[in-house]
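R.M. (postdoc): so does anyone remember the format we settled on? I'll just put the structure tokens first.
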């Protein structure tokens, strides 16, 4: 029988313990291995936008960004990622480079198969912001727009060609909105538990250009990441075709206001 040096025995013990600890770390409190967290990231540096399908507007990958130019059909130019999402964190880096201040943003948990007279999806949540730091969030249900909140954000970097980071977190009916890593608001709504994610750029004179630098979609498996709920009591409902949360500077008709309980 060979004599095994003590230092080799020590290394074997250390390696065995290390492997044993790693296996324990991979297990949850019940001793079973949790499923992997699904994550999708694209930065368009390979010259493609694989999985993204345009609805309207001219969408091309150019200089490592996903660029959209207004069409002559709709004011709202959108595309969508061809997959269904439910609970997730969506992060998009975006800027508008040409056109009117309003707007750029995302549609989420939506259905791009049907669009309204302006080009917006007829059923979706929608978050947009403008280059003068105006912003809004709401939902469109069968072309009727319900506004959760509208205002100006100190967290948005003003001006054309200025990059901004937009974050939406969705988990079991709660929606968190962040601009450049700062929490802007929290909302409770269960109308669309899942759906497709889209990018959107609006320009009422058909002269808009926007660029999307990267998109990150990561599955959320726990509500721990969500902010404390501070839902707003009053939401504004606008009839179909009148106001879809696009032109924040436009004169709008008086909406119907509905009160939500605490």
């Amino acid at each position: 029988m060979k004599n095994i040096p003590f230092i080799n025995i020590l290394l074997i013990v250390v390696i065995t313990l290390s492997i044993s600890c790693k296996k324990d770390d991979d297990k949850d409190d019940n001793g079973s291995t949790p499923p992997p967290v699904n994550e999708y990231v694209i930065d368009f540096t390979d010259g493609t936008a694989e999985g993204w399908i345009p609805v309207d507007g001219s969408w091309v990958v150019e200089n490592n960004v996903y660029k959209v130019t207004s069409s002559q059909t709709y004011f709202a130019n959108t595309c969508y990622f061809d997959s269904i999402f439910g609970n997730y964190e969506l992060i998009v880096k975006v800027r508008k480079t040409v056109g009117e201040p309003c707007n750029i943003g995302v549609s989420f948990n939506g259905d791009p198969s049907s669009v309204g007279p302006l080009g917006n999806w007829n059923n979706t949540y929608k978050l947009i912001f403008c280059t003068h730091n105006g912003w809004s969030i709401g939902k469109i249900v069968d072309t009727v727009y319900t506004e959760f909140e509208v205002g100006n954000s100190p967290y948005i970097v003003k001006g054309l060609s200025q990059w901004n980071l937009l974050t939406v977190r969705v988990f079991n009916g709660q929606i968190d909105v962040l601009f450049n890593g700062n929490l802007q608001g929290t909302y409770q709504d269960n109308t669309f538990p899942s759906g497709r994610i889209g990018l959107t750029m609006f320009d009422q004179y058909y002269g808009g250009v926007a660029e999307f630098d990267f998109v990150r979609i990561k599955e959320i498996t726990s509500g721990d990441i969500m902010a404390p709920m501070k839902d707003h009591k009053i939401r504004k409902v606008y009839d179909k075709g009148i106001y879809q949360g696009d032109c924040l500077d436009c004169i709008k008709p008086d909406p119907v206001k509905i009160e939500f309980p605490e």
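R.M.: ...and that's the designed sequence above, right after the tokens. Also worth knowing: The chain has one domain: 37-259. The CA atoms of residues 165 and 181 lie 7 Å apart.
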